[in-house]
Automatic annotation (TrEMBL):
This is STAS domain-containing protein. Gene3D superfamilies: STAS domain. InterPro entries: MlaB-like_STAS, STAS_dom, STAS_dom_sf. SUPFAM superfamilies: SpoIIaa-like. Residues 10-102 form the STAS domain.
């Protein structure tokens, strides 16, 4: 898992699973605590995700909300959306999809 900081956006690349949750968690919480603005997690290049990683996103979303911020997941791919529905965590995430191009 590669994490790239782009302002208030964390861009994730690769497999987001139990092996990378601690690293991603630290990056998310650092952004929430550092910035007074909302945090976006760009998941365009996330190839796979597991239930542990989705639970981390759900808990971080709630933590951000309780801190007066928003944590938004941008453009989750089909594998991420499918796992979110299977684990019933889709309702716990704020999702922003990329605009369709004509």
């Amino acid at each position: 898992m590669d994490i790239v900081y782009d302002g208030h956006t964390l861009v994730l690349h690769g497999a987001f699973d139990v092996r990378s949750t601690w690293e991603v968690r630290n990056a998310i919480y650092e952004c929430i605590e550092t910035f007074d603005d909302d945090v976006v997690i760009d998941m365009t290049d996330v190839s796979t995700i597991d239930a542990t990683a989705l639970r981390l996103l759900a808990v971080a979303t709630r933590h951000a909300w309780l801190s007066g911020h928003h944590l938004t997941v941008r453009n989750p791919g089909p594998a991420v959306r499918r796992m979110a529905h299977l684990t019933r965590l889709a309702h716990a995430l704020e999702v922003e999809r990329a605009a369709a191009t004509a």
